[in-house]
Amino acid sequence: MKVIKGKTKIAIIGAGVVGSAVGYILKNKGYKIAGIASRRLESAKKAASFIGEGEIFKDIVSAAKSADIIFITTPDKVIQEVCDKITENGGFKKGAIIVHMSGALPSTILNSSKRLGAKIVSIHPLQSFADPKEAVFSLQGSYIGIEGDKDALIEAKKIVKALGGRHIVISADTKAMYHAGAAVVSNYLVAIIDLGVKIYEAVGIPKETALQALMPLIKGTVSNIERLGIPGALTGPIARGDVSVVEMHLEEMRKNLPHMFRLFTELGRHAVRVGSEKGTLSKEDGEKLLNALTRKVVFLNPISEIKVIPRTSRGSYRL
Ligand SMILES: NC(=O)c1ccc[n+]([C@@H]2O[C@H](COP(=O)([O-])OP(=O)(O)OC[C@H]3O[C@@H](n4cnc5c(N)ncnc54)[C@H](OP(=O)(O)O)[C@@H]3O)[C@@H](O)[C@H]2O)c1
Questions:
Q1: Is 135 in the pocket of ligand 1 (CB under 6 A)?
Q2: Whole-model pTM above 0.90?
Q3: 62 pocket-lining for ligand 1 (C-beta < 6 Å)
């Protein structure tokens, strides 16, 4: 980007949670929030009031024209469409930097802007935000994946620093895998905790009590991961190679929650891999565990997964 006299001007297109939070922080770090536009005017007004600065534009093209760095912080599915529309209407200045903040999509979805001489970059915080206030706080110290044009990356690093984050440079072609990793530790973590809660509900503990009771354990585990890393933080019967306890878990899971049995065993098999890395699990016990976790898998098709498995006359399950 060319050296800009005075404050670097920012436009926010898509005045939601992330756009508002980024605008707020960057304004307080010396950038000028020149323009704000959104699908609805009320959202742009709300963001301007939260940020404490920014001319509100009815159309996205005029908002983009007002700035040197344009953040397209709309939902992922319309980022490209928004960028293309601004390009078609000549809304990007030569040398402008076009930013989107999606985790899954590469910066190249902004390619159309290059026709006007713009540079492109994606800046993705590895964090989840529910509202702008909380996002301003939680962006501090967050890691932020960046990828895009060389010149734009230099500017992106400055933006990440201003946001209080730490950058990691990724590449456009690995963006979806990079995002899959984030989805696992955030979204799938919620799904795994839900599995634990469902197991407690199956033994008669109400959902709220179950979650409350499991929270200290969840927090302790996360803190151990932070302190000891992986595999160091793995504890429990799999890390100890306690095959008999795992066998008991499997029997109970098969009886009580057969539709979640496959998920349980798949996670168990991955825990065995982690346990082997830790070195507390002997090769022999590791093999016994893998055997138990594979042998007892109930193969159900997705439609029948919600059905209870019929018992045979001898009381065992038909596999
Ligand atoms: N939230 C997170 O946890 C998080 C984390 C990392 C990255 N991100 C990324 O950040 C970006 C924004 O996410 P967000 O959570 O801030 O979403 P959001 O709160 O839903 O905000 C998106 C905003 O864009 C506006 N918008 C929708 N369509 C538009 C269009 N065609 N033209 C102009 N504005 C439009 C919305 O509409 P209205 O004007 O109707 O309000 C809304 O204000 C996404 O790329 C997302 O992947 C989000």
A1: no
A2: no
A3: no
